[in-house]
Amino acid sequence: MTEPTTADGYPRDPEAVSRFVEHFAAQLVEAGLPRMPARVFTALLASDTGTLTSAELGEQLQISPAAVSGAVRYLSQVHMLSREREPGSRRERYRVHSDQWYEALTNREAIIKRWEDALREGVTSLGPDTPAGRRLTETLAFFEFIERDVAAMMERWRVHREKLFGTS
């Protein structure tokens, strides 16, 4: 009996893949990602090509086309996957990239900027010397601190990634 293989010919135990997908997806759910997007993202991450169609995701995860669609919509909005059209077809493939974590964190930086702007407005509206204004000022200072560290960390990652993988 031969071991199952991927489309690229790599040996693969479907049960082991399923266990990994469910285990890592559970970790992502614990961190705040919705369950179905976590499962879809992990299935893509675990595929050798980093791409799967809606039908392939549905079959692998035993979920409905509507569940795939909702998960893909969410993951697209948070920049954790991209959509690609298959040449000559109306069918889409969904792809995770090797830099998906970088992209997701970079997108978070834009969100933090918007939060900072809203907090500044809140401090002005509530008054910087009120208890609420001081709390908002401290929250703003926290986000400004995090933003600086994330930007520096992402630059260090680009250099480190280049050394490890030779890609930028």
Question: Which terms summarize this structure?
Answer:
mainly alpha, Arc Repressor Mutant, subunit A, 2 domains, three-stranded antiparallel β-sheet, 6 helices, 3 strands, elongated
Write the layout of secondary structure elements.
Blueprint: H1 14-30, H2 35-46, E1 51-53, H3 54-61, H4 65-77, E2 82-85, E3 92-95, H5 100-126, H6 131-165
Antiparallel strand pairs: 1-3, 2-3
Helix pairs in contact: 1-2, 2-4, 3-4, 5-6
What can you see in these coordinates?
The chain has 168 residues and is mostly helical. Helix content is 67%, strand content 7%. The protein has helices at residues 14-30, 35-46, 54-61, 65-77, 100-126, 131-165, and strands at 51-53, 82-85, 92-95. The protein has a three-stranded antiparallel β-sheet. A hairpin with a 6-residue loop joins strand 2 and strand 3 (92-95).
Measured by DSSP, the beta-strand proportion falls in: 5-15%
N- to C-terminal distance: 42 Å
Helix-residue proportion = 55-70%
Assign the CATH superfamily of the largest domain: Winged helix-like DNA-binding domain superfamily/Winged helix DNA-binding domain
